[in-house]
Amino acid sequence: MNSWDSAKKPQAPGSEPGGSDEGSQDAPPPPEPRQARAGTLVRRGRLWLFPTVLSALVAVALSLLYMGGTVDPNGNLHRLPIAVVDTDTGRPLPGQRQNLGAQVTGAITASATGERVEWQRLTSAQAQDQLSSGRLYGALVVPADFTDSVAALTTAHAARKPTLTALTNPGVGSLGSSLASQITQNAAHQASLEVGRYLLESNAGKGADARTRLFLADPVTVATAVGHPIGRHSGLGLTAFYYTLLLVLSAFVGANIVHNGVDAALGYADNEIGPWHTRRPTVAINRTQTLLLKMAMTAGIIVLTTSLVMVATIAVLRMDASHLPLLWAFSYCASLAVGLGVQAINAAFGGIGQIVAMFVFIALALPSSGGAVPLQAVPGFYRFLGEFEPMRQLSDGTRAILFFDARADAGLTRAWTMIAVGWALAFAFGFGMTHYYDHKGLQRLTPAPVPGATD
Q1: Which domains are seen in the chain, by residue range?
Q2: Residues 377, 68: contact at Cβ < 8 Å?
Q3: Can you say how many angstroms the Cα of residue 331 is from the centroid of all Cα atoms in its chain?
């Protein structure tokens, strides 16, 4: 029975409770309130003001944030880490102090692309190690016989054309690996033109016919190979990003469902499903205890959602994944960091908390995650956000587990550290704000609690 139905009906004027009044009649029921009409309300400017302004601001902000980080990756490129590896063991050509491998790698690392590319001169072992940890987006390798194969072009004993190899790293994402591949191939082509210039100026080039000179002008072949292979069911390196997005979205949506559901169950919000409307009796509970309840429920429900995400992606869709116990533990802790943060923000900001949380965990986080577009290919503002925005940290940790054998130096250590920081900030901010509100007596505006509602 509805609690309000049990309230006593008002007595007629002049009557006494429990008594009788033979000469009196029941008071007429109050008139039904006049129903408002949409046509009348829609002409009220104040009704339009808040939702219009807020919707416009959100639309503009989302457009600028999302597109601002993706419209010009090449133009925003800044110090993309790529290795250049010299394994050339040939003797210097006549008139040269160094063999061609040393000259090519030296020219590349000193080139004008230094602001766009961070060329790193590494050994083969060093380059392979950094490709396997995701710290390199690609590599350009000069083979051991490079100088000798170039020298053979001027003789009748040329076995094959000289070759430079561009190594890709699909584990860092398809766009990042593609950018690195374009850069290494362009660098190799420039090196080929420099080698061709030397050959044309040599005695063999000066006496050659037109067809031979055309061949010598660009004599080097560029081969492409995978430096660190990943599985076929890895979305060309994008499954780590989308898996992280699933963790964030499921935690974000789930935390808001808990927030709204608890408020409705405790009588602090109406519950409407289709045409049915209910309002439960208000439970006497302060803000701090309410937040504690919501966080505890969020922690419990995320156990289920994390498990279901893994079942759907790995068992059903056959996504390539290893280290499954570690992946589950990381996924749960990462999702919980998001869920706790959402509850803290909702507790602090009230009605607009869900919008604030959406910007913190999605709108600002997606373009600064480095998952789809490398952080080295976005404007500086997003690289700054990537230092602390949660999705970047979670994406790096997921990528390390899925593609780089769960190596700590592939971003996993930083991810665990930032998850712990996220938990601490959520607890400190959320309970700090609710304790302040409770201490100041800033109670939520609700009807008086119904006795026995907490029983």
Answers
A1: 80-226 (3.40.1710.10), 236-439 (no CATH)
A2: no
A3: 14
